[in-house]
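Run folding on both entries below.
>entry_1
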Amino acid sequence: MPLCFAVSGRFKSLPMALLFVTGVVLLATRAESRQAWRLAWPVIAVCMLRLLYDIGNFLSHRLDWSTLDLPAQTLLFLGIAAVFTLPLKQRVIALGFSLTAVLLGAASLYQRYALGVDRPYGLNGGDWAAVEFAMYLLVLVLLAMLQALRPDTRRGDRWLHVAAVAVGLYGAVLTQSRGPLLSFAPVYLGLMLWHAMRSRHWRRVLVLFAATVLGMLAVTATLHRELVERLTDVPAEIASYDTGGDSNGSAVGERLEMWRTAWQAFSEHPLAGIGLDQFGVYVREQAAAGNASPLIAKYVHPHSEYLESMVAGGLPALLVLLLFLAVPLGFFARQLGHPREPVAAAAAAGVMVIGMYALCAFGDNVFYRAMPQSLYLFLVLGLAVGIGRLQRNAPSC
């Protein structure tokens, strides 16, 4: 199942349709499913709020119907979430995610070493998908590490999860994507701290964290210095942009120019925005008028989810996005100290997923393609409803 979110087309649509129909049937026929679904109401409500706001934006700006393709996915995953009200085999789901991490990490290695691709991009998406591919991989790595740390994980399964962490991390490093890798560090540290506080095994956690960090540093400093060079180039690229006022063709310079143009669009339309997916139209007009660098005319999104929302719908859209991230984060954070290990583990998974997306959203768009948005909705809604089922079935005192 997790592999379905890493590919596009017919392979993905059929399983998703079957899961959606199953979820709708469960909600219509099973009182236990409806009760568990309702216990996750804050997460469900904020997802519906975002969908309704996008529909209102579509109507007010009289946009093309294709603009609603991605927002409409929310309805699909609201139905799919009901499947998590069933007593699913969590071990099978965890193994599925780790196997997906191994497969995608191996695909990254194959693209780099066999095909000579400079920045691997995964199974679809093309050259521009390297950043979202890295974020996707690192989310799977975090989930695999969580399973490896759980005390009830079988020894054979634990080795598979550890392998998923190693292969997935290596594959992510090969993408040379600075934003996701920098975002991964604090989220991974948070996972280690949470596990240490819960298990009281501080020394073991410290050794594991140090081994992971040293391993990543060794790989990037010896075998793949491209990432180190990309990181050290950042100050020079910023200084060059500040001096020349142009993107100068650098990745950082182009981002800064896109952010400046996005802020300009927001300043002109602070309450209503210019409409969903209209940044590309706006930036081409500004480039033609000489108000923006022609080097960014090829981009259709400003490489920041927060700026994207401000451009598309002004301050109200930014508020909706912040709620879309903060409400589920609060829902999961309240369960991190739950005495039942399955509930606490599911909450930790939810916090990590949202943490990765929220941090990556500063330097890239994380909801503008079906693959990363599908993973977010599937995990956040599924984990929330799964916690609702566990709480509903909690033994009475």
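>entry_2
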Amino acid sequence: MAEICCEAAAAELADRKGECVVADAGSRAARRRRMEIRRLRIVAEEQAAKRRRLEEGDDEDAVMRAPAPRFGVTSVCGRRRDMEDAVTTRPDFIHGHHFFGVFDGHGCSHVATSCGVRMHEIVAEEATAAAGSSVSDEAARWRDVMEKSYARMDAEAVGSRDTATGAAPTCRCEMQLPKCDHVGSTAVVAVVGPRHLVVANCGDSRAVLCSGGAAIPLSADHKPDRPDELERIHAAGGRVIFWDGARVFGMLAMSRAIGDSYLKPFVISDPEVRVVERNDGEDEFLILASDGLWDVVSNEVACKVVRACLRNSSKATTRGGDRSSPTSNLSPRQSSGDDEEAAGHSDDGAASDSDGEGSGEDRACADAAILLTKLALARQTADNVSVVVVNLRRRPRS
């Protein structure tokens, strides 16, 4: 009887072991299936992410290969005896980025001329060097690039007049020395990139963006009586005297500039840099101009004038008729000599009649720039007037 009970117990134990073996095998198989499913899911997610990165890279490359923005330039002496402004336009000065600058000289023209010749080269060098840095924030990287570029440009302007051009330029400066302390220039620079607009300003020239029909200033004038600038000058031991307007020590009507070593450290060359993301659906155009325009024309009026010119040009093109210029009877007096060469624009102050597919020069933008210039002259501006109009509507690739 005992033997029968032992056999029954042994059989039951064997059955339980068999069930456990089967259960363990089933759980291991299920675990393997789950792990395989998880592995396949991870592989699928990695492949999808890779495809997205490739697609985004293709989009970025397409944007970088997009044609340069259309622009127009004019620069006139106005009622001044001498032309002291310089303008620079350099499409694709680095891959996918386009440089525009307006430099308003004072005391003489050679610092503004040097800025027109050298600033885009310095910015390109600093941007190339910053491309390999560990800074991932594009806005912070561009601020650093612009600050270093302005510091280098100021050092060249203060150090020697012939550093930038290789020979002292011909000018009417009363101090024909390698170093000229009483000469300087404002500098407003815009870099139009595929994703961002970078604007750096030092002085009282100005950049204004028209976006969604609104005039948006991208720079603030550096006037000595601006509260923060006034406080900075006083903290450095300087004074602001009101002599035909607020002036540093009664002499210079701006608190920041390239050059002017005789007023340092009260007049500094540090730019204020603003980086804004481009909005293709809203951004229309960008205006860069010297204070000869902004002294007599408001941001809003300037944007209305440019918008009307671009709209009329677009309508004429759509109709397929002769696109007559609203400024065809205007011939503002242009800068001459080295200023024209530094500016890099045509003798008549406008771009060619063609749309300038290669260079980006555009008749409608040039008409708008000329019209703004004539408006400033009609309103009795006493200064040189230089204007750059950049159309921010992207052009389809041909």
